[in-house]
Structure formats: C-alpha cells, structure tokens
Amino acid sequence: MSTTEQHLQPEGQPISRRRMLYWSWWLPLFGLAWIAFLVSAFPQPVALFQQNWPLIFVGMVGALLGNITAVGGGIVFVPAMIFIYHLPPVVALKIAIASQSFGMTSGAIGWLRRGVVPLKALKFTIPGLLIGSTISTLVIHPNALLVKGLFGPVSISLGIVTLVFLNRYPNHQSTSIPNSAKTPLFLVAIIGGLITGWVAIGEGEVIAAFLMLVYRFNASGGIGLGVVLLSVNSIYLALLHTFFLGGIPWEIAVFTVLGCVYGARLAPYLSQWISPQILKIGFAIIAMIDGLIFLLQFLIFGHH
Which residues contact 280 (CB under 8 A, 6 or more apart)? Predict the structure, then answer.
C-alpha cells in the first residue's frame, strides 16, 4: 500500500502527495500484449527480435531521462537513430514520437498517481500544444535539421538560466499556479508544440522551465505537468504521422516502446526520494546536453 503525505498550498489548502510503488497490475499485461503484437504483426518476429533487441535498452534509458526531467525520450532516441542506426532525421523523429507516446504516458500515469501534477493547468496548456503541434506537423512539415540549429541554443539557455536561479528562491516554492499565468502558459504551450512537432521534444521542457523560473513553481509539479503534456503531445503527433505523413516504422519503434514503458515508470518512482533542488540540477544538465547534441547534429549534418 502506498502512504499519503499531506502538504499545504500557500492558501492553506491541503494537497496529497502519495508514495507510489514501481509495479502496477497493468505492467505484466502490457508485456504479454507486446509479445502478442510482435508475433502477429511481423512475418519473422524471432529474426526481428535478434536484430533489434538492443533498442529495448535504448528505450529504457531514454524514457527514464525523459520522464525524470520532462525533456522527453527524444533526447536519446533521435541521436541514437541518426548516429548509431544511420536513419534519416524524419524517420528518427517518427520513432521518437511513437516511443514517447507509450513511454511518456507510462511516466505520466506515475506522476499523476503521486498527486503533484496541477491538473487545472491542463485546460489551457493542452489547447496550446495541439495548435502548435498541428502547425509544425501539417502546415510547416517536419524539417528536423533546420530546427535543431534553433532548438540547440534555446535548450542550452534554459539549462543555464535554471542553474543561475537555482538558489534564488530556496524557501518559497509555490504549489499553485496563479490565474494570471493562464495566457502565458497557453502561449508557451504553443511554442512547445511547435518545437515538439519538429524535433520530438520541447513541450515538457519549456513548460517545466517556465513554471519553475517565472512562477517559482515546485520542481516536482512542474516536471510532472511537463511529462503529462508531452504524453498528450506525443500521442497526438503519432496519430498525425500515422494518418497524414506516411506512417511510423513500427518494426523498429516496437522495441523502443517496450523499453519506454518500463523505464518511464522509474522516473516518478525515483523522484520521490530526490530533492527538488537535485531535480532542477538534473533538468538543467539534461537540457544543456540535449541542446549540445542537437546543435552538433545541425552543424555536422545541417547541409546534407
């Protein structure tokens, strides 16, 4: 049984933060469903497994990093697909989006079970991300290399700013979002949706950073919200790619998906014993590494 801890909002209203266990009843069922899908959907499942099983561990690492910082598993998936598997950037993007649809959702369920996600913020962030994602997918088609040149410096800047403000408000972490934040969050969600539609990550990262830096929102709540939003974003983008942009290479994505589901559950589970300051440091480091990777990809492959 999980225990419940009571915390107070600044207005004095209690909120609950539940201790969660890693294991859930649906995890073994997902594993069985995955095996059934592999056997029924592909003509030579054993050979396919022998060829692509390392991708399961790529999915686990990407999902753990993506869910514990809200950056998204694309920080691992896209570079791995481009540098190791030598796939075209847009194919790597499709695999990252499909993987995150499962991995970020698995992590989002865990964050929601912890009770730290500000659910009211979903009403004005989800419409924003849907608008941004639609534009970056259907109006301005994905061109990952071009956007990496822009997203790299932005991500690095977010990490640096987070570290600069790390100790600015050590004893004043808010657990509620003011009404004045609705419009800014809507606009930031649009920007996040634009970026995510092009490079598979961004929505959770910009939302978490914005809340922590501008509104001094607590790290767990900001990251949890970012994970939930990136989950919604990834599912929506996966549907767009499936029905409008030529589909998703499931013969590869099915293996990262398996690792994602189990790796993602570790993020909210481990975060229960990690201080908000450590979460912020982790967020900042991952954001800067993320930016450097995409910037290098742009500089090396930008003209190919």
Answer: 162, 166, 212, 219
